[in-house]
Amino acid sequence: HLNDFAMRADKEGNIEYAPTFANNELGEISQHIIQIYNRLMKAKSDLVLEQKRVLKEQEQQALIKKQLTQNISHELKTPVSSIQGYLETILTNKDLSPDTIQHFVQKSYDQCNRLSSLLYDISNLTKLEEAPEMFVKETVDISEIIASTLSDVGLLLPGKNISVDNRTKGKTLICKGNPSLLYSIFRNLIDNTLAYAGTHIEIGIDCYKEDETHYFFRYYDTGIGVSEEHLPRLFERFYRVDKGRSRKSGGTGLGLAVVKNALLNHGGSINAKTHHPTGLEFEFSVEKK
Questions:
Q1: Rounded alpha-carbon distances, angstroms, from residue 221 to 168, 176, 199, 251
Q2: Among 233, 229, 203, which Cα is nearest to 217's?
Q3: Domain locations along the chain
Q4: In this model, does residue 245 exceed pLDDT 90?
């Protein structure tokens, strides 16, 4: 029987044939040999499946990197082309009025700022994905980070008649985190509201729950909101609900991608949903330690 099994195995590889053996020591040894063979074939099959999975994952990553490179190239061309156009107009038109020259210089300066922000966000995303250990963590109070962020945008809010309901004020929200990344989470959420949500609205920030390991936050605005079909893709790099709105507003198209990756770096996650009756809402978590 063992010889028959060996011949079948040599010919067919992975086989279902399971012979019976005499009830003696030789029979037991033969049975163990077949069991070992079956385990080896199962391991081989699992290894092949794992190799296929890894290969598919590598192909997907290569495709994502290719698309990202194309997107970055496209996004960099936009401000560079604008700056080149404004400066070329100034250099080739000697009869431009001082006001027109000032206008073009201001436009060039604005595009330089956008280019700088874009490069900064790309750098941060790259470090978060490839070298997260570069972001040193320390003991911080998230409520103080939020207060600092709101202070920094304080002069921008009245111009759009945006009020803030900060329910983290007075709370102690201690975690082990990187201050710069934690700041970028709340700053990018607020900047997103400033850029796209509209005027005469409210921003709300709250730590609505905590457990032994995480804080759970809610951020919302009562602005124009986003259609349901766009919500799952808001955290993709360079994804735009309106294809032209990010450039017009000076955004980089990377803000929410930075938010997501900064939260992953802090053991958390984030999701977006419609805020009722109007607006956009984000719920996210931050690990305490």
A1: 16, 28, 11, 18
A2: 203
A3: 2-54, 137-287
A4: no
